[in-house]
Each structure stands twice: as structure tokens, then as C-alpha cells.
Amino acid sequence: MSPSDEEPPVNSMRPPTRVAQYLPGVYTLKRYDRSWLRHDLLAGVALTAFMIPVGMGYAQAAGLPPITGMYATIFPLLAYALLGPSRIMVLGPDSSLAAVIAAIVLPLAAGDEARAVPLAAMLSILTGVAIAVAGLSRVGFVTELLGQSSSAT
Predict the structure, then answer these.
(1) Does the pTM of the predicted model rise above 0.70?
(2) Which of 20, 74, 85, 135 lies at a CB distance of 3.0 to 4.6 Å from 15, suitable for a disulfide?
(3) Domain hosting residue 105, numbered range
(4) Is residue 68 assigned to a domain?
């Protein structure tokens, strides 16, 4: 990785406008160095080729049709391109999500795939709303408390 490929420190990336604060991907795009494009496109194609089958497999493991895994992989990546603060971070489906979705959705769907898909969609929407409310409420500091050990003295 050359010095030009490295991300600047977080402090130097503070968006100057309120819109850029909520759409950091747009801010990054305005500052995008064209020399990164070839490598970014290659990385995007490779990542997509890897992540789509993984997402489809996790969807099937969660009791959903595999096609839902494809959509649940592609659309969040596109959304992250606009909303995400890092052009280097990689996001994608996770095996723990498959277990959580299966544990919540399958009993409610009672084996009906036609009910499982909207239930899983509603679960993801409600989770997103809860995360957005937590972010707007500035309760992110709680995550730092989770990693700290407590000892009785």
C-alpha cells in the first residue's frame, strides 16, 4: 500500500458541511483520487464475486430463499458507499446474523417461506431504526463500556 492509498487520520476527514456529515461517501467521492479507481473497481468486483454466494448461503441457513441473500449483500454495500465513513472498510453478511434471523424469524413464519421474507425484512428495518435512534441519541459511548472489564476491589 502506497502512502497515497492510505486513509487520512479521522480528524483530518471531518466533513465541512452538515450534508457531508450524514453522507460521508459523497464527501469522499468529491475528494476521490482518480488513480484509485482501477484498484477500487477490481477490489469491488472481487469482493462482490466472493460475497454474493456467501450471502446466499447465509440466507439459506437462516431459512430464507437464497435470492434474498443476494439482495441483502448488494444493496447494503451500495448504501454504505454513500453513507459509510471509510472507503477501505468491508461490510457483508455474517454467520451470526444467520443464526439470529433463524431464531427469530423461523418460529414466527411457521415454515412458510412467503412469511419468512417479510418478517426478516421487518427485522432488519427495525434493527436499522433502533441503531439510527441510538446514533442520534448519542449513546455510542455504551459500546466502549461493553469491552471494559470490571473488577471488585
Answers:
(1) no
(2) 20
(3) 10-146
(4) yes
Q: What are phi and psi of 33, to 5 degrees?
A: -90, 120
pLDDT digits (tens, 9 = 90+) for 120-149: 999 989 988 998 898 888 887 777 777 666
- Give every CB contact of residue 7 below 8 A, 6+ residues apart in sequence: 13, 86, 87, 88
The answer to whether position 152 is within a domain reads: no
The dihedral built from the CA positions of residue 51, 56, 60 and 65, taken in this order, carries a sign that is: positive
Contact 57, 66 (CB under 8 A): yes
Q: How many domains does the chain have?
A: 1
**Which secondary-structure segment (H or E) carries 3?**
none
Write out pLDDT tens, residues 12-21: 555 567 767 7
Instruction: Give the Cα-Cα-Cα angle 79, 91, 61 (nearest 5 degrees).
Output: 105
Q: What is the pLDDT of residues 41-62, one digit of tens each?
A: 898 888 888 888 999 999 998 8
> Element (H or E) spanning 146, and its range?
helix 141-146
4 within some domain: no
Whether residue 15 contacts residue 27, with contact meaning beta carbons closer than 8 Å, is answered with yes
